[in-house]
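DM from R.C. (forwarded with permission)

"hey, sorry to bug you on a friday — could you get me a structure for this? deadline for the figure draft is monday and I only need the backbone to look sensible"
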Amino acid sequence: MTVFDQFVISVFNYYKARFKRKANTIAVFYISLLQVSILLVLGVFFAAFFKQMHVETMSSSKAWTIFVLVSVFVYFKNWMGYSGKKRNILNAKNTKRKSQQHSIWVLWLLPIGCIALSALLLRMV
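My reply, with the result:
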């Protein structure tokens, strides 16, 4: 079980008590937001790095277009992966092991922190 799988199960179990039918949608949105924000941090970091090295790879508009396309792909990949049998298997493994539940506040601060870090790095570009 990967870290992202553990995060999805933690978010799903937290929101399952409050929002029975929307818990899976919230968990898929969360993991997609986290993965896209990590992708954004990496992209902005490499853009700043390449600018400092005076390497011209692609234009900014092309990079943002690729980022949007990859973001849509990540969302649909997570939607397909965590909406069916895989989530049920992960949930069964989680109940057997009784693994630690992550704090929901920390989980939601991870993508916010990644977005804030990318905003700081984007100012350098």
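R.C.: lifesaver. The chain is about 80% helix and 0% strand.
me: no worries. The chain has one domain: 3-124.
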